[in-house]
Amino acid sequence: MRxxxxxxxTAQNALEVxxxxxxxxxxxxxPCEVVTEQRVYRLRHYFPESAGGPVVLLVPPLMITAxxxxxxxxxxxxxVLRDLxxxxxxxxxxxxEREPGGLERTVSDHVLAVSDAVDRIRKAxxxxxxxxxxxxxxxxxxxxxxxxxxEGIESVxxxxxxxxxxxxxxxxxPSWLASEGVERIPDALLGAFAVPGWVTRLGFQAxxxxxxxxxxxxFILQLHDRERLAPRxxxxxxxxxxxxxSWPGPALAEFIRQFIQHNRMLTGGFVIGxxxxxxxxxxxxxxxxxxxxxxxxxxxxxxxIRRAAPRAxxxxxxxxxxxxxxxxxxxxxxxxxxxxxxxAKWRAGDGDLPDIVAPVAGDEESVPAGLPGGSAGxxxxxxxxxxxxxxxxxxRTASRAVHGTRQLTGExxxxxxxxARLERIQSDTRMSMGLLLDEQAGRRPGDVFFLYQxxxxxxxxxxxxxxxxxxxxxxxxxxxxxxxxxxMGTRPTALALVAALSRLxxxxxxxxxxxxxxxxxxxxxxxxxxxxxxxxxxxxKLDGVDGYLLGGAGRGERGPLTDMEIIDAERVALPxxxxxxxxxxxDLAFVxxxxxxxxxxxxxxxxxxxxxxxxxxxxxxSLSSSDTxxxxxxxxxxxxxxxSLGGAVAGGARLALASAHAPAPGGRGGTxxxxxxxxxTFWDEARRYGVTVASxxxxxxxxxxxxxxxxxxxxHAVRLFxxxxxxxxxxxxxxxxxxxxxxxxxxxSTEGESVLVNLSGKKPGSLGRPLPGSAGVRLARYDLExxxxxEGPDGFAVECExxxxxxxxxxxxxxxxxxxxxxxxxxxxxxxxxxxxxxxxRRDADGDFWLVGREAELIRTAEGIVPPGPIxxxxxxxxxxxxxxxxxxxxxxAEAAAAxxxxxxxxxxxxxxxxxxxxxxxxxxxxxxxRVVDEVPVTAGRxxxxxxxxxxxxPPAGDGRTYYRDKAGAYRPLTAxxxxxxxxxxxxxxxx
Length: 992
What we know:
The chain is of the alpha/beta class. It contains 30 helices and 41 strands.
């Protein structure tokens, strides 16, 4: 009888499950009121009749319904919170597959919805909100708090929410799958379909197949006992079927691109709406719940919030739970939700910090909470999953073993096509900035091209603007090959204009706003200048030049210039001669300027020279779509045009234009003030834009490395500083302070085609070796007195041995000999052609090149010629020396070698340190004088200026800041007698 009754009950219950999906348990959902219903979400207020206390807003992940917080009366998060004196609210995104336009939603839609809900709750309650989210809902919470810069957020609480995918992926997959695998999925395919809820459900169940099978077997075996199954029925139905919804395709694509492939939760620079956002803007406290056995959001991924939000105080609650167990089930009801309620009340000044919550500092691990069921209980649970875990462990081990090889292989696969394309470029090859931009826009129109003042601009939007400017240029009569002056600050309009001139095949003459535009316009011979509103008045004063205005449509005084913004681009007919991107590699593309006054010089940059820097930078820095290149220098500077902009375009990376920096004292005259890095601005934008590569010139990073520690620099995402001219001592300090970032130093002339690059970074101060695809270089013996190459018995130049100082020669294509500076023919072979760079190098035994000095910098002393490089490097290695300038002081017909140094902080220059440091320099090449100055003058580009120091002559004796070299080679404070001897030595030589 008993068996028959049991079988009958089983059959009856099984029929009910088959017909209705489960039992009717008569459990009601917790009472709630829908406060508002918007396009993307509904806002639920639970227990509105008894509202009061701290406010908590709960956000579900995309693939799970909002009922995850109120599955049943037995496992109701909102019920626990209300019982413990907290006022619970829930964001309900609904089921996208059943909502109008639900499958077209993006990540931005969800984040903005959460932010809107915060505003509505604050208005209704008058309280700031504890913003809490589970899994991806927690990622929305982080993003919304960052978007709001913590305004109105009392705290952020997350449960199993990743903030760093570089340490691994869900399901135990290796992180390289994100960068290598996802990169190959086209955008159109990635966002073309939604992921049905059943697919996600099966994926979650596949994580714990033993547990999933066991729970189903237990359910079947107990199917006869309705009373025993009833308490867990709502939870079973939620996890088995009812709790899963579709993941919209656009949101999936955006999520995978921004947060899986590019890891921008950690690095920053993700886009919400059209605003750039970084988790570094979170300043409110953060409480993160970590599941120690979470296979979806592994602890290292969750703990990444410590690095992503350096300005926030982070707290952690670590539980022995899986992904679901953090918020659903007996552990969550007994530990998680009481801790959330205790946290909210503690923040309100009511009670103590919950015992499972602990503050964390740096990267320390918090103490895990007690194991559920004790160590034996947990050991049993662990044993149940040994089979699946063993397989995953073996997979991870194999992945780690090949990761290094895969990384090198991936970089090679990425860079080889770039270098191959560079080597194939001939004078008549189609190549230009406009062409490469069109290629990028065709591949990924929706990807971000550049970032400026907190806004993101896509390739598609940039292309539309550039094409409109092209039509405007045609309307005012610009044709292919015409030179057009660009007088603008660094802004999107300037970038669009330069690109439009390239697309048209015209020449962009980049006039410097902080220079002498009139002199530069005369030198370049331009007849048209296009200015932005800020520089319109200066453009209007240029003689013999037609001035035009572009940018700032509808804003401010437009002045007397012809306003190109009023041109209706759609009505401009394209002439028959127009072909987009007609530029050939040998065509002139840009003119840039260096120096000022009598030293003003125009450098002519061909498309080939620009492409050489663009592809060379992209290859050397291994730039990809995951990178953001931060251009600190203005667009008119060669480093910005050739390296930052060029590298980003050729590498498919994002370009971030730095905000303008205020003029700093110490510039030349009143027309060329130099600009300094504001560390606060640098780190704010580095975080906001997700900067991974930052450019520099000369001593530009000195302000950054000397600044007090900034909270935003902790765990920064910058991996490379790229540029040229950085002194060796500063190089070391940059790498020491900002590790693991390193310096990638280049050497190149603006017009020539030779490029050296220190790829390994193992030898600070070295300029490395020739970049593949650039012009060949050789080091030849050079007579410094006569300024001629030394010749061997056969009449050819003599190549230097390792360690020998010589002149760097760069090979010149025969077609370009006529335009090369200082060309020489028949140097090493009868028909070869080279150019004398004017730079003296030595090559070490490994083949790396070291700059000794430029020919114009040589100091001609009574004892012989002294190059500045060895002195500069030796003194720069002293830890308390900030900057070193080496120059010659005129004494009669000769010069005395001198060095001026500025000190770091409260450093003190000691004569003994001077003597020991300069022992590494050959006796005949050591300076006669070393002096301490408050600041070493620099140019607008932060290059050291020696003219003011040289003009000051030999400093007066007895100032306590100048030292001379005595007959024994030691350095002592300068005395009046020593000063007279130095001056007399020059006079005696003059008399002779």
